[in-house]
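Handout, tutorial session.
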Amino acid sequence: MKRAVIFAHWDNNLTIDDYVVYYLKELKKVIEKVIFVSANNLSENETKKLDGIADNIIAKHHNEYDFGSYKRGFEILKAEGLSNYEEIIFANDSCYAPLFSLDKLFEEMEEKECDFWGITKNNYGLKGKNPHIQTYFIAFRKNVFMDNDFIKFISSVKPELDKNSVIENYEIGLSKMLFQNGYKAETFVKEFENISNPTIKKWKSLITKSKSPFLKCSVLRLKNTDYTTADGWHEVIGKTNYPIELIENNLKRTQEKLNTEPKLPTGIKEFLYNSLNYLPQKLRVPFINLVKKVFSSTSSK
């Protein structure tokens, strides 16, 4: 398939990190056109990192999160002619990727009879059960991205009050609109669809058992310690194709040093999280917070 990817970027330090450059290089190997859109005003020295990788670069501040970047990249493709492509992908910098070959991913998903696809499906949203394909990596076939409803949806992206509004209106809203229009979705990973946000709560199994090429950065940055433990990540990543030093260097400036995990053996900690993740949010959160308060320590790995 002839493909294009729109890659959304944002960095608090106005940096294109080495893990992002690596991700884009790997995408470029399997995708004909790479459009890089940052929500930051980036310096020329930063954008030069993408010479020979990105075909188009937009690096101008906006307040529309990832979907604002997807919108701006999509405008470029519309101007050039959407019919030039068979598949358009939205991806962002929220993952360390790819852990495994993207060739295998695309080969497998190209055989699927579907209209759009992603890596994982989340059956739950902010207000209950809202099945949607998670948009850190989502691909659309031609019949979808040339549909006027899809074009209107992407073009309608505007600034929202907060990230939750973005998730509700755009990440969940996009799948909702496509399902209502009769489009069929597929996912690379079939496990854990009954768990809210498996990319966080089941990150280890997604990699070791499902061979997902993606690991959410927030897990290792210790931003999800209410939901999971980052224990053992070196061992997990060490068994993949990913250069582990890219993660280590990124964590030096991004990891939440003051965040805490329960001070318990890894096996007990994983059992605790796995058990609690099936409980309703109102029960799980107070319990895990109590555990963290009693058994807490600064954690780095």
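The second record follows below. Compare its token runs with those of the first.
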Amino acid sequence: MIANNIESAYPTHPGTILKNEIEYRGITQHKLAQEMGVPYSALNEILNGRRSLTEKTALLFEAALGIEAEPLLGLQTDYNLWKMRHDTSFGQRLAELRKVVAIL
């Protein structure tokens, strides 16, 4: 995300945006979870960036809050890719794979 020509050091988890939105609207997490038909714990984990937003939950947020699912899922994809690119053990696996493929 870019604001005032300053680029974030890492992508924003969509839960951060959703959490800010429901707090701004004065909606409790318990009430939103109940209305969406999802367990409170699952909603809380999404809002706190400990669980990924799925297509299903993105559509539920879209219906409940009027926030389009596609941009939320784009944020989730960016966040997931950033996490994987900064995962040391996965990075080593990718490096080894690149070596093997280069030989072929």
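Points raised in discussion: The beta strands are 2-3, 6-7.
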